[in-house]
Amino acid sequence: QALEKSGAISSYRAVLNGPALGFGVQLFAMVGLKSQAGPELTAFEARISQWPLVREAYAISGEADFLLKCVGADLAALQDFIINDLTAAANVDSVKTTLIMRVSKYEPGVPIP
Asked: What residues contact 73, with CB distance under 8 A and at least 6 apart?
């Protein structure tokens, strides 16, 4: 209760079993944009919010502009999304994907002593 009152807890959620719900494949997509100007970033972020297969999105620095975590029923579904939606989106210059083979550690949040 003290953590709730202090604002340290921002939300509660259930962790769903993706494969049990028909989402057996996960991948990361590193997306490079043609332009990183404010309006283009805002437009891309708005587009990301409309894609149900994109479950997490991070604006990052380095060789890509965004890191997306995507889920799909199978590899074909994710391939269709990457080809028909993500790479076809306005302002997208490059997409590199990495298939998630297994999750070795999952501890979201921050460590609490």
From this structure: 22, 23, 24, 25
